[in-house]
Amino acid sequence: MTQLDIASQDAATLETAPTRYIEGHGIRFAYRRLGPATGTPLVLLQHFSGNIDAWDPAVVNALATDRPVIAFDNAGVGRSTGQTPDNIAEMARDAVAFINLLGLSEVDLLGFSLGGCVAQQIAAEHQGLVRKLILVGTAPKGGEEHLLAVLQQAFSQTDVPDPRLPLFFTNSSASRSSGLAFLKRTKLRKDDRDTDNGSAVTDPQAKALITWCATPDPGHATLRAIRQPALVVSGSHDTMLPANNAYAMSRELGNAQLILYPDSGHGALFQYHETFVSHVRTFLDAQPAAVTEDK
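Structure for Hydrolase, as requested:
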């Protein structure tokens, strides 16, 4: 990487960074890399149906001011080739393949919703690869989900400008106002926007999330295999993956902090983007605490 490349990368935002590609394992992965060239990279794992441009620039750009941040499309999503798997294990396998193709030996993970399930799988299986873990609006294996019911309700509201408004935010005026601001930010990028691949992505992703939550995990084996420091975040009124999932995860993880944002839904990290970024920075910059003994 030349000094010019480094300078351009430092100055790039989610709205201006070029979409890059890297190929291996039969997949051509699309990604954008922001922030400084040094430091532990923060890899973003996206929600159900989301691509790179579904991330909130206010979150991604702020996090990238002092650390490398990588947003990417997993297999079959957006501009990445390959087929979207219908299970979390294969999604995790593809994400690890992408990380390895970039030559990264240690990363932090931020997994939102479906991406949080993938992040749990990766952290449990790859202790040496994942330094710290941020789980937002997600559920453990065997957790509670209301994906199809919430989607049906959201898409039935024909008077809203975007289904993400009822999906991610509450009915309060403050939350709805934050939601409209979020939607505006996601449309700031005008050129080289990511693509929506429709049911080829959403059908297998829905199956993966529903199966993950429907599969018992005796003794919370997956969570207990995660020894890395974790930050668990939820909205108080998340209807898709309720906040009791976050509480359950924080209890079973060996080294976890729990944050619950008030009057917020599935998109709490976008509603409270400044507070969320501050919490993430504090968590990532802190010296890791000692792992607790098995409970």
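The beta strands are 20-24, 27-34, 42-45, 69-72, 107-112, 130-136, 230-235, 256-261.
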